[in-house]
Specification:
The protein has about 240 residues and is an alpha/beta fold. It has helices at about 45-50, 75-80, 95-105, 110-120, 125-130, 140-150, 170-180, 195-200, 220-225, 225-235; strands spanning about 5-15, 20-30, 35, 60-65, 65-70, 80-85, 155-160, 185-190, 205-210, 210-220. The longest helix is centred in the C-terminal third of the chain and has 14 residues, at about 170-180. It binds adenosine-5'-diphosphate and magnesium ion. Adenosine-5'-diphosphate binds near residues 15 and 45.
């Protein structure tokens, strides 16, 4: 058994000419939600996209579940067991909730249907709107669809990019509760700008700043460290 489900070692990523990730190293222990924090433009989304092979690392190593995935293609990485929920709820508005699920399923078998039932238990609205077009869902429900349809696959690890963005505070709390239930089965890497959400869900945290890891530790320590929050997150 590897000690960490995912680790990044000195990862460098370029977008065009721009050197975005400048030697990011981080370790994700299994069975918790690790939170990735930092200002806008710090490189949080690029880190998730680099793990998924969407913006591949130019150098460095990414190890998942004991295997090197640094040079793997996105579909190989998904099949290896990493689920990705990108920013901005990329659900298909003109398709029904059911069709969104069908498209997301990597394979359809009894186990995936059992997981679908578990998703209904977590997000009952998805069952309620099963035959409705995704376009009619509220922002919170779309976010639940984006997360829920990813969860029907047998992932060991879920990468979720700013799920609380644009949600009312009560929905943020509900989502935090759901992620806390998910993380007992599936390790999570959560990108968040919403500190309330991050502190409800997070175990370990990493703060990215200008493409490097500026700080790391336990979320409960960060919650008490007002200087650090002010410096990197702009929270008084
Ligand atoms: N397609 C792109 N080409 C060049 N630079 C980009 C592109 N997309 C994002 N960036 C830049 O990369 C940096 C990191 O972006 P991103 O990873 O999205 O940050 P975060 O998710 O932390 O807000 C930012 O400075 C952003 O302007
Ligand atoms: Mg981002």
């Amino acid at each position: 058994m590897p000690e960490f489900i995912l680790s990044l070692h000195q990862v460098h990523t370029f977008l065009g000419q721009h050197h975005i990730l400048q030697g990011v190293s981080l370790q994700v222990p299994e069975g918790q939600a690790l939170v990735l924090l930092g200002r806008n433009g710090a490189g949080k989304s690029t880190t998730l996209r680099t793990v998924m092979g969407l913006t591949p690392a130019r150098s460095g190593h990414i190890v998942f579940n004991g295997g090197d995935i640094s040079r793997a293609r996105p579909f190989e990485i998904a099949r290896a067991g990493i689920g990705f929920v990108p920013e901005d709820q990329a659900v298909l508005y003109t398709l029904t909730v059911e069709e969104n699920f069908r498209l997301a399923m990597l394979e359809e078998d009894q186990a995936s249907h059992d997981r679908q039932e578990a998703v209904f238990a977590l997000f009952p609205d998805l069952k309620k709107f099963w035959k409705s077009k995704a376009g009619v869902l509220s922002g919170g429900q779309k976010q639940m669809l984006a997360i829920g349809r990813t969860m029907v696959n047998d992932h060991r690890l879920l990468l979720i990019d700013e799920p609380s963005k644009g949600l009312a505070p009560i929905l943020v709390d509900q989502l935090a509760e759901s992620l806390n239930q998910i993380k007992s089965r599936t390790t999570i890497v959560l990108v968040e700008q919403n500190f309330r959400m991050a502190s409800r869900v997070g175990g370990d945290y990493y703060i990215l700043d200008d493409g490097v890891v500026a700080h790391q530790g336990r979320m409960e320590e960060l919650a008490r460290d007002h200087q650090l929050k002010q410096k990197y997150l702009g929270i008084a």
